[in-house]
Design goal:
Layout lengths: L26 H14 L3 H15 L5 E5 L5 H6 L8 E6 L2 H13 L6 E5 L11 E7 L7 H14 E12 L5 H17 L4 H11 L8 H11 L3 E8 L2 E7 L2
Parallel strand pairs: 1-2, 1-4, 2-3, 4-5
Antiparallel strand pairs: 5-7, 6-7
Length: about 250
Amino acid sequence: METTDSPHRDEVFRAPRQLVPDFRFGVEVATVFDDMVARSVPCYAEIQRMVAELTADFAVPHSSFYDLGCATGTTFVNVHPHVDPSVRFVGYDSSKEMLDKCRLKLLEHGVDRPVELRCVDLDEGAVIENASVVALVLTLQFIRPLHRERLVRDIFAGLRPNGCLILVEKVLGEHSLLNRLFIKHYYEMKRRNGYSELEISQKREALENVLVPYRMSENRELLMRTGFREVDVFFKWHNFCGIVAVKP
C-alpha cells in the first residue's frame, strides 16, 4: 500500500515575508515535506504507486535500487514489499535533515533489508554500482542544468544491462500557450488543496532560481543521447511527467 506519511501540515510560506529566500531542503521543509508533496504534486500517491510497480518489473535479485534525492524515504517504503529481499536500497540526498527523516520512516515501516543512505551533492555526480533500477523522482529539476548530463551518464554507467531509470519531473509545455494553461491549472490544483495565493506566490518566488524545468522532449532527448534505448512516458498531468528509460 502506497504511503506519503504527512503528520505535519505544510505552512512554510503561510506568513508574509519581506524577502523570500531561495528554497532549501532544511529542517523546516523536511518536517512538512510529506504533506508538501502530497498537496503540491498532482496524483502524487498514484505516481508513487506507479514507480513501485515499474521498479518491481525491473529490479533483479542481488542488485541495487537507487533513489537519488530520496528525501524522507517514501519511495523506498512503497517499493519495499514488491522487490526481492536481496535487493539493496541506496538513497542519496543533499539534505541531512531529509535523511534523518528517511531513517526514521524506514524504521517505522519495518524496511528490514540492506539500506545505505548518503548525504551527496548530486550536482557533483553520483557513484552508481550494480543498479537494476535508479529513481529520480522530482530531483533532476533541482540539479543545475550544466550538471544534468553528467549525472544521467553516471546513472547509465552504473546500471546493469536491461536496467531502468525512472524519471519524474515538473516540465515546461512544448508551446507557450499550452505552458501558460498548464501552469494555470496547476495553481488551481494547489488552491483546491488548501494553499493560499500568498503561499503559492511566495513558494514560486523561492523556487525561481532553484527549480529549473526542461520540456518533456528535452528530457527525452537527454536520455536518448546518453544511450538509453526504450524511452517512454508512463505518466503525464499538465506540467508534470514520468518517463521510464531502459539501458540496452
